[in-house]
Write a structure and sequence with these properties.
The chain has 274 residues and is of the alpha/beta class. The chain is built from eight helices and 13 strands. The strands form three sheets. Strands 5-4-3-9-10-13-11-12 form an eight-stranded mixed sheet, sandwiched between helices. Strands 6-8-7 form a three-stranded mixed sheet. Strands 1-2 form a two-stranded antiparallel ribbon.
């Protein structure tokens, strides 16, 4: 069946259809005009394996997903713990509509979606799209983060420090295409109080001439130092390395990081090596 769906997608027919299928994890995946196609199989299996190893930090707390897109991380989290308290932040209206349907079809009772982008301020901001997909996972609120933008939509922006999580946050996942520092700073009160693990994508700076990206990396490092957090680089083959800084690199495979409270280092090392 998945092979047939791939053919429909390749032929451009899938975008005219609306139906649901069970994926390999047993979740009901609504296919809505082609949206949801990527949820039929597991991308980035390293992420689910990582979540299993460090689940002790969030199973009795709240998992916060900043940049929920269409639920890729949400399904991984629920597959690790079906009763997990999960709060996802997502500003893209097309993604939000899909997420509500996905949650309803699977009757996820402990999942909440907050339809905003997190940052250090509250207001409206342009969400800039760089592909023709209405659920563009590369869309960013950072001006000129990439070349050749296609369009932009105004979306609501919320200072994370103003949000009441109504409980302890055990883990935060951040995938926000360049605005990582703003998200971290906006959540600094929660990070300082709850000491969660933070899984964060930080895209390559490529060269020292890419001043904005290098400066953003430096700002993240200063934030982590100020809050006494360390950095672990996690590779797709599930190897990991404790590092002191991001450095200048160009390999997208080196973009995934786990930020950890320094006081938890020995425990984290043990869990990752199990």
């Amino acid at each position: 069946m998945i092979y047939f769906i791939r053919i429909l997608n390749r032929l451009g027919i899938l975008r005219f259809l609306n139906f649901s299928l069970r994926n390999h994890q047993g979740f009901t995946i609504p296919l809505m005009g082609g949206i949801g196609f990527e949820l039929l199989w597991e991308a980035e299996p390293w992420m689910r394996n990582l979540l299993k190893k460090i689940s002790y930090k969030f199973t009795d707390a709240i998992f916060v997903d900043v940049g929920a897109n269409v639920g890729q991380t949400m399904l991984k989290v629920i597959s690790v713990n079906q009763d997990q308290k999960y709060i996802g932040f997502e500003p893209n209206p097309s993604c939000i509509n899909y997420l509500y349907t996905l949650i309803q079809r699977n009757r996820f009772a402990t999942v909440k979606i907050i339809p905003v982008a997190l940052s250090v301020q509250t207001g409206l901001i342009d969400l800039v799209f760089y592909s023709s997909s209405i659920t563009d996972s590369t869309a960013s609120i950072v001006p000129n983060f990439r070349d050749e933008s296609l369009l932009a939509h105004k979306v609501p922006l919320l200072n994370g420090n103003d949000f009441n999580f109504e409980g302890r946050v055990g883990m935060i996942k951040i995938d926000v295409e360049g605005s990582e520092w703003e998200v971290l700073t906006g959540l600094e009160k929660t990070i300082s109080n709850d000491r969660p693990l933070i899984c964060c994508e930080v895209l390559p700076s490529y060269s020292v001439q890419n001043i904005d990206r290098v400066e953003r990396q430096d700002n993240i490092e200063k934030f982590l130092t100020r809050n006494q957090y360390g950095i672990i680089r996690v590779a797709p083959d599930e190897t990991h390395a404790f590092i002191s800084n991001f450095g200048i690199y160009a390999d997208l495979k080196l973009s995934n990081y786990l930020f950890y409270p320094l006081e938890d280092r020995s425990q984290i090392e043990q869990k990752l090596n199990d």
